[in-house]
Write a structure and sequence with these properties.
This protein has about 450 residues and is mostly helical. The protein is built from 16 helices and no strands. It has one domain. Helix 2 runs antiparallel to helix 3 and helix 9 packs antiparallel against helix 10. The radius of gyration is 21 Å and the shape is globular.
């Protein structure tokens, strides 16, 4: 990667140069889940879709692990390069890779050994358990490739090859969709077929990403010279917010499922699947915006070019707000589009979802800005500020509201919990940015 280009070229031009490949890459990543959701919902029914929604928090753990070490290591690598310390940059890459592999092996082993008790805690019932056990073992068994894919996407992009990262993810995502259709419909492999399609797609993406290491433009080289416990702590501290975003998403999904089962039942969990899967699309768009901004922010921050850092922040906030507002408006005006996208809805589902979508989607107006500010603080080595925002929108306020609001508003309070959490987080983000600017 030419550090000089990132520190001297047009900020807006460079941002959009990275934005399109980054968004394409993260959007296709969402297809791994969305393809399963649509095909399972259409082909196997609402019970199967509810089962998929129960397994998704486990999926988040692996994706979060890839981001923990991918973002943590790549931010430090970019800042080191901005300071002219190439050897430190290579060490951060190598150390992050080793840590990622070790974490994935441990997590996979634990989940596979205790799978049934874990999914029972996550909300699997007698109705959904057979579907869960037909899907989860295969996805979890191959989920390490998904984590490594998200890891290498980040580093390959930071190494000046955003188009290569995009091509890898698109190829794996398209293959996943094709295999989903073939395995579920003509071959009638059910949930197992959907799981196998996801694993094969992620293995394909991972393999293509590895080709970058053999290219002439590759600037990623393995070395552990200078690695230490202190460096490990730096990677964990810097990347922890990205991991926390995924884990809190899984925690929130779990708690919401429990509350929905209490107030509505399995049909409500299926309706919530519409929200969670659309949320995955929005999250991936926001993640793409953050990933486009991160190399620019980190390299210029490392080089001490703070005016350029501010320019990237301003552009990123505007883009995040504009993109997320589009989905919010669609949800408010034509909510049933999203219901038909994921399900063959009954009258009962349409009655619930039309209200739920309108309320829940209102939160998207601020979600993009809140997520961008979370990533911005992370990219400028302000992990504490980043974590405050992450916990505010991802755990603290969303969970408080999902328990408190239904007591006064009934089921509508469940759908209103997330939008209200985004509003409170937006206020906190504004206050934290004022503190950041003064410093």
């Amino acid at each position: 990667m030419e550090t000089k280009t990132l520190t001297e070229g047009s900020v807006t031009g460079l941002f959009f140069k990275y934005l399109i490949p980054a968004i394409c890459g993260t959007m296709v990543t969402s297809i791994y889940v969305l393809a399963d959701t649509i095909i399972i919902g259409k082909g196997l029914g609402i019970e199967a879709m509810a089962a998929l929604n129960i397994v998704l928090p486990l999926f988040n753990i692996f994706y979060g692990t890839g981001l923990l070490f991918g973002v943590g290591g790549s931010v430090l690598m970019s800042i080191a390069r901005g300071r002219g310390d190439e050897k430190a940059g290579q060490m951060y890459y190598s150390l992050s890779l080793i840590l990622n592999i070790l974490f994935c092996l441990v997590i996979t082993t634990i989940i596979l050994i205790y799978l049934k008790p874990i999914v029972t805690v996550l909300g699997a019932t007698e109705v959904t358990m057979p579907y869960v056990l037909s899907y989860a073992p295969y996805v979890i068994g191959g989920a390490s490739f998904f984590a490594l894919s998200s890891f290498f996407q980040t580093f390959v992009r930071n190494d000046g090859a955003p188009k290569h990262a995009m091509a890898a993810v698109i190829t794996g995502g398209v293959l996943n969709i094709i295999l989903d259709v073939i395995f579920v419909f003509p071959l009638k492999l059910g949930m197992m077929g959907a799981a196998l399609a996801t694993v094969i797609g992620s293995v394909t993406t991972f393999t293509i990403l590895l080709f970058h290491l053999r290219s002439k433009k590759n600037g990623l080289h393995f070395t552990l010279a200078g690695a230490s416990a202190k460096r490990i702590a730096e990677v964990l501290r810097t990347g922890f917010t990205s991991f926390l975003l995924e884990i809190t998403s899984g925690i929130v999904m779990f708690i919401f499922n429990i509350q929905i089962l209490k107030y509505i039942g399995d049909v409500g969990v299926s309706v919530y699947g519409i929200m969670t899967n659309t949320n995955i699309v929005i999250y991936c768009l926001c993640n793409g915006i953050n990933q486009a901004a991160q190399p620019l922010v980190s390299v210029n921050f490392g080089a001490g070019l703070y005016d350029r850092v501010k320019q990237v922040k301003n552009v990123g906030i505007k883009v995040a707000f504009a993109i997320c507002s589009l989905f919010a408006i669609l949800g408010l005006v034509v909510p049933n589009i999203f219901t038909y996208m994921f399900l063959n809805p009954t009258e009962e589902i349409l009655e619930i979802s039309s209200i739920a979508v309108r309320i829940y989607f209102a939160g998207f107006f601020l979600m993009g800005v809140n997520m961008f500010m979370t990533g911005f603080f992370q990219s400028t080595l302000r992990p504490t500020l980043s974590m405050v925002l992450c916990l505010s929108r991802g755990v603290i306020f969303s969970l408080i509201f999902v328990f408190v609001l239904p007591l006064f508003m009934g089921t509508a309070g469940i759908w209103a919990a997330m939008p209200l959490a985004e509003v409170v987080t937006g206020i906190i983000a504004f206050l934290l940015m004022r503190v950041y600017n003064r410093k």
